[in-house]
Amino acid sequence: MLPYTHFNIFSSYIYDIRFKYINKVQIPADIPLLIDSLSKTPMILQSFLNDMDRARLKTRRKADKWSIHENACHLAQAEIMINARFLKFKSEPAPIFEPYLPGNTIDDNELIRLDLYEQLNAFKKLREDTKEILSGFDASTWQREGSHPQYHTYNPRILLRHTLMHDHFHMYRIEELWLTKVEYL
Asked: What is the rounded CA–CA span in Å between residue 127 and residue 43?
């Protein structure tokens, strides 16, 4: 057997395990896994925040770091931009993107003023919207290449992975702010 190949006894295909055939069209096999993981982030975040002392959520434990509250609200705010990017990939064959740099484009106190629970509900709804947008992608949409000044290559699959890593980066930051002694931040 060739490397990365697998014979599926339920079909007549021998296929590369890095891809999934859907209606005989090749879509990267990790796409459903990534989408499923993304759909769980709002529940994980909510559960995580429920364990924390509410009095500490808005505390900026270090001058150059967002609070727990700000990290959580940022996930909802960023999801608006993420949805717009996926929609752009869906509607344009070679979309061009601008960097999203919240530290440079929003007031330093904007996130702290937002209602955390409204933002968590918005995040859940926006993530459901993201999943719905992605369900409409066909193989050709997943293969589109966009242009982004920060990255050498940019396509929907990279954006999907980037979104998952972004979620986990901020959830790690939240845990770090919750648990870590200030001298170790």
From this structure: 11
Neighbours of 68 (CB within 10 A): 27
Mean pLDDT of 60-69: 92
Residue 39 DSSP one-character state: H
Give tens-digit pLDDT for 7-59.
443 333 334 445 454 445 578 889 999 999 999 999 999 999 999 999 999 99
- What DSSP line would sit under 105-133, residue for residue? HS-TTHHHHS-HHHHHHHHHHHHHHHHHH
Amino acid found at 163: T
CB 170 within 8 A of CB 75: yes
Instruction: Say how far apart CA 102 and CA 105 lie, in whole Å.
Output: 5
DSSP 29: T
Answer for the pair 144, 156: CB distance below 8 angstroms, yes or no: yes
Residues 49 and 68 sit within 8 Å (Cβ to Cβ): yes
pLDDT (0 to 100) of residue 95 = 98
The mean pLDDT of 131-137, rounded to a whole number, is: 95
How far from each other are the two terminal CA atoms of the chain, in whole angstroms? 50
37-65: string of b/e by CB count within 10 Å (b at 16+)? bbeebbeebeeebeebeeeebeeebeeee
Please indicate, yes or no, whether the overall pTM of this predicted structure exceeds 0.70. yes
